[in-house]
Design goal:
The chain has 743 residues and is an alpha+beta fold. The protein has 23 helices and 19 strands. A five-stranded antiparallel β-sheet has the order 4-3-7-6-5. The protein has a five-stranded antiparallel β-sheet with strand order 9-8-12-11-10, sandwiched between helices. A hairpin with a 6-residue loop joins β11 and β12. α19 packs parallel to α20.
Amino acid sequence: MVWQPTPYTVPLLVAALASFSFAVYAVRNRSRGEIPLVRSFVGVTVSSGVWSLAYAAQLSATTLEATLLWNRLVWVGVAALTVAWPVFVFVYVDWTAWIRPRRIALLCLVPATAVGGIFVVGADPIFYTSPSLSDTNGFLVMEYLPTPALLGFMTYAYAVNLFTFAVLGYAALARDGVFRRQAALLLAAGVAPMTVGVIGIWGLIGPRFVDLTPVTFAATSGLLGWVVFRYRLLDLSPIARDAVFANLSDGIVVVDDAGRVVDLNRPARRLFPSAAIGCGVDEAFERAPAVTDLVSRDGTVDGAGSRGTPGADPDDDLRVTVDGGSDPRFLTVAAHSIAGGGSGAGVESEFESPPEFGSTSAAGGTVLLFRDVTERETLQRRYRALIEKSPNIIAVCGTDGLLRYVSPSIERLLGHSPAEIEGRPVIDLVHPDDRREAQRAFECAFETGEPQAIDHRIAHADGNWRQFDTRVERLFEDTEEVVITATDVTEIRRSEQRLQVLNRVLRHDLKNDTNVIGGYANLLRNHVDEEGDDYLDIIDRKVETLTHLSDQAREIDVALHRDGARAEIDLSELVTRLCESLESSFPRATVTVSTPGAAVVCADELLESAVRNVLENAVVHNDGDQPIVEVAVDPDGEGYRIAVADNGPGIPAVERSVFSEARETALEHASGLGLWLVHWIVTESGGELEIHTREPTGTLITMWLPTANGEAAKAREAVANGEAAADAEAASASSDPSPDPAP
């Protein structure tokens, strides 16, 4: 017989060789996978191999008789693949109802009828009318007119394929991890040949009468190989083995009935470095001989039975010690027998044929689940000492929201004895504004089992609020209790805030101004005439700025490092005196004062510095010809409010937000120290500071301060302490100083 070379001969032969190689590999490794999956996979690969090889011979034939002869074998491969592919997909997704004998027989009806008719009558005239050989691009190709039977068979085959593609697509979307990647690659391996074949039929690529479907197998065989070897399609647990089995935190080792290790995950490899697939249990568990005794050579569970289950209390499982020299590991071992040839009988409920692991098993054996409880063993020895001496508050709360245990440290940190706290609702001591968040965290800890972090305030016995970082997490997996670890960060937040703000000043404001002075001083060297006066003026202004900034920094340092002593201060006398001094220092300013006869408050001794800063800023930063400052002291609830209004340009919105949110960021920060000084002194006094913009121009700053015996004083003082802790975030330093001056 004379053969002709074609551009498609080599790709078809490559596709055939790859398909038959996959089939041989699956048969040789059939003991590692599930029988239905292996059989259907072999059916797909052999069918595609027959199709590719026969079509290569058909295209290489130079006579019509030989072409039609090889075409019969092509239809054998096509018909077989029309059955094998959907069966493989149904087995892969574990649709066992679709692979029953009756349904498979129904699936074979159309392909078997087509092949039978071709072998009895021939493809001509069943599928082809007037077949002939014609020259196409230098080689002979059979041309024909399709019959209704051919169109009907192609419609049936495409419909079956589209249904299987939908099944694989849904599986890829519904699952995670390796199963999604497996299904996606299988979908691509199925869609690509059909798509290319349809495009070829329409004549968009290649000769119209050349079927490019088997040619595409040469490319899709690479995808199939990736699924088989990279994602272990034919392994013992083919579908979600990596997603479920390999990623478990517990170690799992599967031992067959011959006493050999057939699979293990990464945690097991770390526990037993000598364990490897194919080695015996004696070698695998040489560091833990008790495990070898647990599993008998015939694959049954020895002694312990299947008494341990994942998630059970480790106290119910076999305990072994892995000899690690100076670092031994304590493990619990749960053994589960696997019945051979069945559906997993004899395995505990967690291993009874879940969809991810398939529905049958080719061989019996034992599944060993190792749980590392070294940490638990160690903690049990140290538990009481750590709890009793912990600098944090450690408590246990039940699902009813009541505290069942509180560590003795609560008396030192919050002034409450454990006896008076135990039995009370867990959120009783939480600040009212933080209770909703705290309640949600407790509920999430119970519902999800995930640790929850809370930043909230807790009441001290003296009425103040302390800032705490609290962690809530399940005590044990099988208990309805959470453990609460609360760390008092009040002083830490305050210290961080103070250090960071002062650090910001030193790193930016003072440093930048000093650089300016140095730059202009250098310019003076080139100006010895009258032009140098302008630069001298600049130097004078910067020196004055630095001096003022240093004075404020000194006041802040005093304010932040003193014990916060309180004194009774008459606001009427204080404000009047400071306003008179302001008029004397700034004659061009118009200052009006309105105060009651007396307005005694209990405030920080540095309150005078805060009020003076507000008054001076109202004039210094006023760019008008005649600054106007209106000051009033009025009673407000259980305290007095100082209101300072001016007609200046106003404080930029960015700087107002810094203090309303009590934090600074790299892009939003107060350019000076005056407002920070006022803010800290007022809050330390148990008061409130508010900044408003006036229309059309100007600023209104109000300071509320409590009276000496007012109940509001204590409440606002406690709130102020909590806010001071939250102000730690305010010290996030700016990378660039603001060009606009601020009070």
